[in-house]
Amino acid sequence: MSITLELPEQLNEDVSLRAKRAGRTRDEFITDMLQRQMAIERFRETRSRLQTYGEATGLLTDEAIFDAVS
């Protein structure tokens, strides 16, 4: 599947530069960045849905959760 994307000039230059530095194509670089952002969005959605359960059990911070599962 393909998508056409118009980027502001500065962002376009930044993407090109960073892709080159990483030894990747622009397509690979952009795909990776989108996948990373989607993972962050999924994490935030999951965290939001589970927050009520955490609060009910007294797990109010990331540190408290980490301590509980470590």
Task: Looking at this protein, list some descriptive labels.
single chain; 70 residues; mainly alpha; 3 helices; elongated
Question: Overview of this structure, please?
Answer:
This protein has 70 residues and is mainly alpha-helical. Helices cover 74% and strands 0% of the residues. Helix 1 crosses helix 2. It is elongated and about 50 Å long.
* SS-based class: mainly alpha
User: What's the Cα radius of gyration?
Assistant: 19 Å
Integer average pLDDT = 92
Helical stretch count? 3
The oligomeric state of the chains shown is: single chain
Residue share in helix: over 70%
Topology, number of strands: 0
- Low-confidence parts: none
Distance linking N and C termini: 42 Å
β-strand percent reads under 5%
Major pleated sheet: none
Shape: elongated
Q: What's the helix-strand series?
A: HHH
Topology:
Elements: H1 9-21, H2 26-56, H3 62-69
Helix pairs in contact: 1-2
Compose a concise summary of this entry.
By secondary structure, the protein is mainly α.
